[in-house]
Amino acid sequence: MPAPNDFVLKVGTVNGSGSQTANLVLLRALFRMGVPCSGKNLFPSNIAGLPTWFEIRAHPRGWLARRRGVDLLVAMNPASAAQDLAEVLPGGVVVYDEPLALAGRRTDVAAHGVPFGKLVLEVCPEPRLRRLVVNMIYVGVVGRLLGLDRGELDAALARMLRGKEKALGLNRAAVDLGWRWAGDHLPAPCPVAVERPPRNLNEGRILVDGNAAAALGAVFAGVSVFAWYPITPSTSLGDALAGYLGKYRRDPATGKATFAVLQAEDELAAVGMAMGAGWAGARAMTSTSGPGISLMGELLGFAYYAEVPCVVVDVQRLGPSTGLPTRTAQGDILQVATLSHGDTRHPMLFPSSVAEAFTMAGDAFDLAERFQTPVFLMSDLDLGMNLWPSEPFPFPEKPLDRGKVLKEEDLARLGKGGFFRYVDRDGDGIPYRTLPGTPGGLGSYFTRGSGHDEFGRYTEDPAGYVKNVERIARKWETLRSALPAPEVIRAGTEPAPVGILHFGTTRWAVEEALSILREEHGIAADACRILAYPFHDGVGEFLRAHGDLYMVEQNRDGQMASLLRAANPEPVVGLEGILRYDGFPPDARSVVDAVLVGRRSAP
Amino acid sequence: MPAPNDFVLKVGTVNGSGSQTANLVLLRALFRMGVPCSGKNLFPSNIAGLPTWFEIRAHPRGWLARRRGVDLLVAMNPASAAQDLAEVLPGGVVVYDEPLALAGRRTDVAAHGVPFGKLVLEVCPEPRLRRLVVNMIYVGVVGRLLGLDRGELDAALARMLRGKEKALGLNRAAVDLGWRWAGDHLPAPCPVAVERPPRNLNEGRILVDGNAAAALGAVFAGVSVFAWYPITPSTSLGDALAGYLGKYRRDPATGKATFAVLQAEDELAAVGMAMGAGWAGARAMTSTSGPGISLMGELLGFAYYAEVPCVVVDVQRLGPSTGLPTRTAQGDILQVATLSHGDTRHPMLFPSSVAEAFTMAGDAFDLAERFQTPVFLMSDLDLGMNLWPSEPFPFPEKPLDRGKVLKEEDLARLGKGGFFRYVDRDGDGIPYRTLPGTPGGLGSYFTRGSGHDEFGRYTEDPAGYVKNVERIARKWETLRSALPAPEVIRAGTEPAPVGILHFGTTRWAVEEALSILREEHGIAADACRILAYPFHDGVGEFLRAHGDLYMVEQNRDGQMASLLRAANPEPVVGLEGILRYDGFPPDARSVVDAVLVGRRSAP
Amino acid sequence: MTAKVNRIGLPQDAYKGGKSTLCPGCGHDAVTASLIRVLFESGVEPWRLAKMSGIGCSSKTPGYFSSGSWAFNACHGRMPPVATGAVVANRTLLPLGVSGDGDTASIGLGHFVHALRRNVPLCYVVENNGVYGLTKGQFSATADRGAKLRGGEENTFEPVDVCTLALELGCGFVARSFAADKRQLETLLKAALSFPGTSVLDVVSPCVTFNDHEGSTRSYAWGREREHPVVEVGFVPHWEAPEVEIPAGEVREVPLPDGSLVRIRKVEEGFDTADAAGAWRRLREARARGEFLTGLFHLATGRPTFVEGLDLVEEPLALLPEGRLRPPRSALEDALDGLTP
Amino acid sequence: MTAKVNRIGLPQDAYKGGKSTLCPGCGHDAVTASLIRVLFESGVEPWRLAKMSGIGCSSKTPGYFSSGSWAFNACHGRMPPVATGAVVANRTLLPLGVSGDGDTASIGLGHFVHALRRNVPLCYVVENNGVYGLTKGQFSATADRGAKLRGGEENTFEPVDVCTLALELGCGFVARSFAADKRQLETLLKAALSFPGTSVLDVVSPCVTFNDHEGSTRSYAWGREREHPVVEVGFVPHWEAPEVEIPAGEVREVPLPDGSLVRIRKVEEGFDTADAAGAWRRLREARARGEFLTGLFHLATGRPTFVEGLDLVEEPLALLPEGRLRPPRSALEDALDGLTP
Ligand SMILES: Cc1ncc(C[n+]2csc(CCOP(=O)(O)OP(=O)(O)O)c2C)c(N)n1
Ligand SMILES: Cc1ncc(C[n+]2csc(CCOP(=O)(O)OP(=O)(O)O)c2C)c(N)n1
Ligand code: SF4
Ligand code: SF4
Ligand SMILES: [Mg+2]
Ligand SMILES: [Mg+2]
Predict the structure, then answer these.
(1) Mind listing the pLDDT tens digit for each residue in B254-272?
(2) pTM of this prediction?
(3) Domain C12-309: CATH architecture, name and number where available
(4) Nearest CA to ligand 3 atom 8
(5) How far is A520 from B254, CA to CA, in rounded Å?
(6) Which residue from B minimizes the CA distance to D160?
(7) Which residue of A545, B463, C189, C208 is most buried, as measured by CB atoms within 10 A?
């Protein structure tokens, strides 16, 4: 029997059956009670009819990783019921739609059939709506079983359906019916249970998905041109961005937009528009996922070489090619690092949390404009499309860094011949730029992807060409020093025997694994979270300080480890990959198991 | 004074002035005399008017690398004359167009002005042709100076203009005029001189560019669909291929084509057509250069994952983005290795010579069909567009390897349910395929870039998905073992203190450097030439056997070294990059100098 | 009782595929159902049919019919080049492209146009719902100006009109139909499959989930209310076709190279399927007025196909044996001789 | 003696650029020369002009005029989206796209079409020579059927016709000219630069190195022999324009939003620049007959531009200060409140 507030609740339904609202009501009610929790949507790549799942994990210590094994299952889908049942842990509880007849299929779980089909007739006269309303009945059943606070449940529902009074009434009745039915028919207490913690652990916190968080980050970083082409799982970033921009970025006086959202004809056009806008001086961004990244290669190589700022959000999904668009991965890292032919390199930021999605989206714009280069925010489906609790995002206090832009008066001061586009005046590899349209007749320059020298002139002269690409390499080093250091968690004052590297959303499994290793296995491990590429020196230090090293990542080919090996002129010794590439977010136990195996097989 | 037959002859002219034929006559005459030699064209990215150069290097030992410093300069272009003059070695000879007035500009060279403008009036009454005919006059002058055999000169000219009798007469007269003028006006003997070697070192050999060689290789490998979009420096591969196919691949009976050449609307279409053709069972190929590779990413990721065979020739050129289209580089390696998002990997072959361009083009088809994956032939501009001497290409004796294709009768034997597209029947990771159109109703399957299992069915099931991508990873290991071992040159029986790694056309500078290191510096060095990626175990062995390691490559970012570090779970210790990225082929002295610096700074 | 079989002895079930995973009621499923019947009735050999598609709900449908055929579900927008390569490699294949309006008119537009320009042998069906169904209902490039999304957003751009664009590119078979107009759709499909070059069939195929509301110009209701066939089309397969008669009066009879016959009867006075420019004008006027014309808009035979232009051997290139692919030793010798200075 | 200056006080030299590196006699150089004069005479502020191009000999030409303007020489075929982004970021820019037939009609076709569909403010000049000049003379997608390369190879495909395609996409300014017809070209360029949305000017611009021989349909000789202007166009800039008069008889006067005036006088009986469908039919017939029509084929104002449709603030987005880009703290609080369950 799990401890209170420590469980996984899984709902298995049919895609398109409208269960999302119901599941969110459960999650939000739990959240409102002050129980640390988060929710993951596991959905198919179709619009309606295939199995879909929602998982809520609660844990008193606020672990955010996915956890294997289900404590409380709500089984609504005949197509997945058998498989869903198999995932329930011994001692777990199952609530199922009566016709599924799951009772007795496993003796080690308590399975309760609910006559949803009959019940819904009681509350919902309109046949068209029944499919939806059924979901609210299981909310009531589960709420009662878990011991959710009825007031919080109602409040969560009311808040979700704010402004839709008719729907609210109907849904509330359904919840109530489920609640009552459970009270009448189900044994109490339930082994899976919620208790209101002495202190509301969610006080002041928010619940948000990473796509919305990144969108908000961009809005508060002043994004002014967003060009995109829809692709799962980045689409909801575009939607959220358009929504927030419409709300917060209209001129108060005129109601006119201080932004433009451009739906392009494809990803080549999307990034081309962002580049055109970045070149002209807008804070420009595009967002996409793997296939889009592959299509953007040529243009982003141009942006690297001609030094055009723009932000690219890659919400990564699983697999080569189309792969599984609704499954998560961290598999575009190698592709992005050297995206485009020739000697091209791109910086990446790896947000692990919705808060970092917000802040790093902002940082990405500052970096892009400061370093005049595309900057990639490497999110993933797990971060982007799932709901994560967070401290509220801090209002960005730092002014926008618009980089080295010469204005009309600067140009006048420098005089004729005082400005050349690619000269390294400051020794940091970063040249100055001007914006098209700057009057005065002094700032114009020619932007090209063909060979050019520091004056921006076309050249085939080896010396002029080489000087310029070497400056760009120098700029890369300046950039490296501007990127965040890794976040290192130390087990003690001395380096621990085990060192675990990770990045992005892999963080949550690793942090939980650290505590399991320590508490259950007495193994002290340090962790190093990579926040950005090119790698900060701190990453190399961590590598050198540890003998037994693991890199946890969500891809088959150990991409981050490859990049680390490739980047390090000093050899990387004994780096073992802990790889997950089935499309589901990693869990702590898998990390622990892999470390234990590694320890055993270590010489 | 250079030894006989050991010199660099450089001709500086204006692009579009028609000097190419003249330069080839010189090269071919030299070749016919039995002197080992090769020619490099250094040309601008425009059609007419910019400076262009032709370099002939002769060396008794047949060194093929570019060599710095010019022994005999022909200066025809005012725009580059000063720079050209500066490259002449002390003691060198200069032949210049009189108006350039180079005499006396350097006291350490012998400069001879030739009144080309006046001379051409004598032989060429037609003003329109004079610009062209002038070039043949310098052929005569240089021929006489160098001591070329007049008979061979005339024979080379005659062979080049075979069938164009009128042009031949005119050109022969021009050569003759230059020859006589030089006899009358220039001092003899010339310090830069040719001697007919006792044995014709070019007996039976050919002179060809790598693009034509690869095209021939493809023709004799049975290429049947070639789809392309023009791009320098791969265009001449398409032209050569179309020419050879038209000549050798028409049905003797009907005159109909056993091939198709498709000029696509862009590179995405070109590779898409090749993939469609490869899928349908043709031997399909595309060729391109960097920008095209970047555009092909998404589709080639599809081909990797859906296992569609095709051959991609990448004739590499310099720089990120458009860069310098007429300068050579080895800069697409990192991009190609993981081209496309997700866990995608591609095999590459690295031809160093025209002979390998021929054989590896053939191997590429066998590998593509055997392993059902895109295979990249990584050529470069230096190999593809310059003229290299070679032993004649061997007729391929090995039958074509069409891979695991089940025919109607195989399917009938296996029966219903006996064939599934992605099942690993043989344990080598390579599945069986069938060709669309196979009658009998048993072989059809669904080709998709979305998640699929071993049966070729769409799946979102983690286990089925993972099983399939792990099989593909296994196939990669089978592929590795089918790829050629590195070619190792050993200084002695024990590993030498220095180990030099290289690949592709870098070979020629390295092999020459080995002998300079040994003969001039007493340094024994071993060399390891990488022929393919994924790396053969032999590469790792070489790394382990040597402490002082160098990787010579033609890019800024040390791409092959990165790949090697990334690929090697064992650390790569002390690998120093010797990098050239100014667009000119590397020379042996630069390699030697870098090794000497490395030796000095080694601990 | 044995099932009814077709000309080549196959029952209709032989043309079925996997179970559809589209939304119940999706127009694309109706097109799939029609395809199954048409392939059956036309007696197409399943193994000759190459089902080509891109990405989208529409592009998934090749999974739902004729499972005895090979299928290539390519990248988004890239179906035309893949189909081109396939039919060049094996000219005996019968490529059927099924694509969506986003796949064809947004990301894939350039390839679509170039396939038309080349006249690639390809029956190209656009399941046109005016939105990106699979990515949840954004406007596609074929959305009409003034059309509204469920949330009320209005499209302010002119549509890419697949049919007038096909006319622009000289396509010889240009038609439009409606997923709910089974009879017309199936006749047009049969004719399109028999057409030797590129045939374009733009099918208004409502997306019940994202674009079937009021304000949509691709809903079932919109289509049912407004459908106006400009011609009535009949198709006589080659094994039933009579000797060709001279077209007379209201009926135009056009023989196709495979021996089948298309019979076109005017419904709208003055509409001439032989006159591309007339069709172009009429379709643009219709669009401006919010009319929904269907039928065969243009039919012109005689233009050589892309494959015909390649002067290939008769056998599929894909099946040529080594002896016909690798030239003899003497050829290499000849080539090498040419490379001897 | 001081040089003549234009309306904004600049001499013609201010509109020059670097030295051309094209082949002597290339049609593109003639277009460049015309552009220099037109920009000078129109009094364009160089810093407002954004020179946009792709890749090709034609796309290099922005290096050869108006060096006081910014230029973006994008990747092959990708100019339209880059120009779109730029003009959205700064709506006060005057984007002039210079592209080639390969850049526009082969690799860039999809973007070209979508720019037209959106009506992006962009003067789009296609320097059309029927070949890929820079890669040494392969046929491009605009090559006419039956045209021959120097080596005798014949093109077997229908061309992509930039003008009829622009009509198809609803473009309001569709014209064709000839690099050697300086007077017409310059008038059309002035009008095109004043047009508020996308204006398309297809200029037959011979490639003297690869496509100026007999058998070419883009040679100087071919053009000179056949050029047939269907209308005569006059342009009255806004600072000279009289009050608008009602079009009458043979002359159509069309005022542009900037106050300038386009005067169109029919040369060919019955040619109506207001009738897109008529122009489409006439151009197709002309193509079939090997005629070379030039002039302004279609002019229609009133369609809102892409930028107008975005409902932007008046100031360039690119120049908005931080205070207008970052919403206030209260906005974040509001957003966070929405995220509190
Ligand atoms: C390169 C790429 N970009 C974007 C996507 C995402 N995507 C999938 S389907 C689709 C649109 C499909 O629209 P349409 O062709 O109209 O098909 P429908 O679903 O409406 O039938 C998009 C944008 C993708 N799969 N690949
Ligand atoms: C992605 C890519 N593919 C191919 C090329 C090679 N390329 C350069 S210019 C050109 C064609 C240009 O033709 P066009 O636009 O007609 O210009 P022109 O030279 O005829 O003026 C091509 C194919 C390239 N630069 N980039
Ligand atoms: S989303 Fe629309 S197009 Fe896609 S399956 Fe559902 S109804 Fe059909
Ligand atoms: S190759 Fe042709 S298009 Fe290019 S510069 Fe020369 S003449 Fe002009
Ligand atoms: Mg659609
Ligand atoms: Mg051209």
Answers:
(1) 999 999 999 999 999 999 9
(2) 0.98
(3) 3-Layer(aba) Sandwich (3.40)
(4) C26
(5) 79
(6) B265
(7) C189
